[in-house]
């Protein structure tokens, strides 16, 4: 923890299309391991790295995130990226949250190891690394890739990993299962499953799906 910091807040960034138990277990594992209170789920509006890849309406992804997190008293959902026009650059979000929470709070940005691997290509990465710590959620037995190892060595005190047992679940696989009429039960909260069926999400293949 940074000297003088009194509190640690987790920022769980993702597209959440849809949110599933992999995300929830990752957030809970990071919360427990790093003593985060609360963990703020931040669904993005327009993911900058998916410019040619259509994602579901932000309204649906936000509501599914609310439904999935409602039973955990340590989880909250933020609209900070949804209410901001344009691409959802993480640096803009962290600058806003840093200003909101002030210097006595440490911010921990949690995301999948694959997403964090690309970190060096993100906008204003050096400023980003100064604003928050990063927690990369990995699967059991995940072989620390050369790139993640390099990132960790270069920014040893800023980038951490947390092992998550349920991370084999993926949003891409869930969307494919819905499209193919296969069950998605037990991969995500029942409330989210019901929401997907009620609103007919993922039945048709998006043009750039499964790129
Ligand atoms: P992604 O590229 O779709 O995800 C990469 C991998 O990480 C997938 O296996 C994904 O699984 C997993 N993952 C994603 N979010 C996760 C989470 N919160 N916890 C555990 N696993 C997670 O990643 P994304 O969701 O679009 O982006 C992740 C975050 O990075 C978002 O907040 C995004 O805005 C930010 N980002 C920022 C920039 C930038 O500022 N330039 C660039 C890229 C990403 P699922 O498919 O099952 O989710």
Oligomer: single chain
Quickly give the structural class: alpha/beta
| Low-confidence parts | none
| CATH domain fold name | Rossmann fold
Q: Helical residue percent?
A: 25-40%
CATH homologous superfamily, by name?
HUPs
The separation of the N and C termini measures 39 Å
Order of helices and strands: EHEHEHEHHEHEHH
Radius of gyration: 17 Å
Bound molecules: NADP nicotinamide-adenine-dinucleotide phosphate
How much of the sequence lies in strands comes to 15-25%
The domain tally reads 1
Strand order of the largest sheet: 3-2-1-4-5-6
What does this molecule look like?
The chain is α/β, with parallel strands linked by helices. It has a single domain, classed as Rossmann fold (3-Layer(aba) Sandwich). The protein is built from eight helices and six strands, in the order βαβαβαβααβαβαα. The chain has helices spanning 21-34, 58-69, 90-101, 113-117, 125-131, 146-154, 171-179, 190-198, and strands at residues 7-14, 39-43, 75-77, 105-112, 133-138, 159-163. A six-stranded parallel sheet has the order 3-2-1-4-5-6, with helices on both faces. Helix 2 (58-69) links the parallel strand 2 and strand 3 (75-77). The N and C termini lie far apart (39 Å). Residues 12-15, 22-23, 26, 44, 47-49, 88-91, 110-112, 114-115, 118, 122-123, 137, 170-172 line the site of NADP nicotinamide-adenine-dinucleotide phosphate (NAP).
Secondary-structure blueprint of this entry?
Elements: E1 7-14, H1 21-34, E2 39-43, H2 58-69, E3 75-77, H3 90-101, E4 105-112, H4 113-117, H5 125-131, E5 133-138, H6 146-154, E6 159-163, H7 171-179, H8 190-198
Helix pairs in contact: 2-8, 3-5
NADP nicotinamide-adenine-dinucleotide phosphate (NAP) is lined by residues 12-15, 22-23, 26, 44, 47-49, 88-91, 110-112, 114-115, 118, 122-123, 137, 170-172.
